[in-house]
C-alpha cells in the first residue's frame, strides 16, 4: 500500500510527560518528523532557535500569516504561536508522519482544516499522579502547581474531541502504544481509498478476462 | 483504564486467507473469543457441531429469531445463517474481544445495530495474488475459481464501509497488524468516556482542594 504521512497532533496536560514521550518516540522510530512552532515570544535561557521554536519578530510573523504560511496560529499573553505550513506539507508528501505538539485550541483548529489529522491526548494514570509529578519536579512553587492543576481542569473539557488517548504510566510502554496507534491509523479504509480502488479494478479485469 | 470487549467483524474475499489468519490470531493471543454462527444447512464431511457452526433445524432457528436470540441473520441459498446473541454479550461484558467472521451484508447489519463494532477487511496483496492462491489450493475447478473471482468483485464494492483493512501478505506480520489495530481501537476516546469523566472529576476535586 502506498502511504502518505499522517498529520498527528499530540496534546496533554502539563506534567503528563508529553515532551519526554515525544523525545523517546523520535529516538526509537525514524518515520516521524517533529514540527517546530514559530513564536514571537523571547527565547528562554537554554532555548535554541529552530529547536524549541523558531523565534521571529512580530512583523515577520504577521507577514507569514498574510502569506498563509501557517496552518494554524494563536495569540497567548501577547505573543503569537503558529505552525509553519511548508515543513509540514513537504514531510507529509514524502510519506513521513508529522507530529505537532500543541494545546487543545490549536488541535481543534487543525482538525477543522485537516479532517484526517490524527488527534492524540496524553493522559496521566490519575489526577493524583499528575499532581505528584508536578510536585516531584521540584522546580515550581505550590502556587504554580495549583495553577497548572486548574489549567488541566480546563483542558480536560475537550478530551472527547480527540481521536485516541494514551496513558503515560510507563514511558517505554507508552511509546509503543503511541507508535502502535499511529501504525494502525495508516490502515483505516479512509486512508487507503486509492489502493482499494486499484484492487477493485484489477479484480474486475481479472474476472472479465476469465469469462 | 477499564476495558469492555470490542465486537470485531472480520470479512474478506474467499482466498484472502481469513480462516488461517483467525486461527493464528487466536493461538497467539488469548484475549479473543471467536463467535460460532448458527445455521440450518447440513454439516459437510469433517464439520463438527459447535465448531464450524451450530447446526440446527429450521424450527429451532426460527424460534431463535422470535426470541431475538440472534444479533444478525440472513438467508442464503435456502439456508439460514446467524450469530447467537448470548455468547457475544457475555464475552463482551467479561472484557473479551469477540470476533465474528461474516460476509459484508452481515457485517453492515452489525454496524447498524452496534455502531461501535469494529469492521476489519482482510485484503490480498493484489488481485493476481488472490487468483493465484485460489488456483494454488488445487481443490477447485477453474469454473469455481472464476465464480469466486466474480464474487470478489461484488464483495469489493463495500470495502470503504469497513473501518480498517489489513493486507494478508505474510501471515505472521498480518496477525501482528490485526492485533495492533484492535489494541489501538481500545484507546479511542469514544471507548474511554467513563474513564475520561472520572479523571476530570478527580482533577476538579484536587484543584478545588488546593485553593
Largest sheet of chain A: 5 strands, parallel
Query: Helix amount of chain A, in percent?
Result: 40-55%
Distance between the termini of chain A: 29 Å
The oligomerization state is homodimer
Strand order of the biggest β-sheet of chain A: 2-7-1-8-9
The mean pLDDT of chain A is 91
Return the CATH class of one domain in chain A.
Alpha Beta
Helix vs. strand class of chain A: alpha/beta
Which spans of chain A have pLDDT < 50 for at least 5 consecutive residues? none
Largest interface, counted with CB-CB under 8 A? A-B, 50 and 50 residues
CATH architecture of one domain in chain A: 3-Layer(aba) Sandwich
Task: Determine the CATH superfamily of one domain in chain A.
Answer: P-loop containing nucleotide triphosphate hydrolases
The secondary-structure element order of chain A is EHEEEHEEHEHEHHEHH
Give the CATH topology of one domain in chain A: Rossmann fold
Tally of helical segments of chain A: 8
Shape of chain A: globular
Portion of residues in beta strands of chain A equals 15-25%
Number of strands of chain A: 9
Amino acid at each position: 500500500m502506498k502511504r502518505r504521512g499522517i498529520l498527528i497532533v499530540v496534546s496533554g496536560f502539563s506534567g503528563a510527560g508529553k515532551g519526554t514521550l515525544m523525545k523517546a518516540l523520535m529516538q526509537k522510530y525514524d518515520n516521524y518528523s517533529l514540527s517546530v512552532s514559530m513564536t514571537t515570544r523571547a527565547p528562554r535561557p537554554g532555548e535554541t532557535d529552530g529547536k524549541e521554536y523558531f523565534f521571529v519578530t512580530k512583523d515577520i510573523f504577521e507577514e507569514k500569516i498574510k502569506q498563509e504560511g501557517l496552518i494554524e496560529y494563536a495569540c497567548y499573553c501577547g505573543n503569537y504561536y503558529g505552525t509553519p505550513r511548508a515543513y509540514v506539507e513537504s514531510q507529509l508528501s514524502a510519506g513521513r508522519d508529522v507530529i505537532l505538539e500543541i494545546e487543545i485550541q490549536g488541535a481543534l483548529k487543525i482538525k477543522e482544516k485537516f479532517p484526517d489529522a490524527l488527534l492524540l491526548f496524553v493522559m496521566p494514570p490519575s489526577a493524583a499522579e499528575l499532581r505528584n509529578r508536578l510536585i516531584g519536579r521540584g522546580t515550581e512553587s505550590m502556587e504554580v502547581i495549583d495553577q497548572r492543576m486548574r489549567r488541566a481542569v480546563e483542558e480536560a473539557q475537550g478530551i472527547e474531541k480527540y481521536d485516541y488517548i494514551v496513558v503515560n504510566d510507563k514511558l517505554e510502554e507508552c511509546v509503543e502504544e503511541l507508535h502502535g496507534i499511529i501504525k494502525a491509523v495508516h490502515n483505516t479504509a479512509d486512508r487507503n481509498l486509492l489502493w482499494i480502488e486499484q484492487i477493485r479494478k484489477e479484480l474486475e479485469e481479472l474476472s472479465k478476462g476469465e469469462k
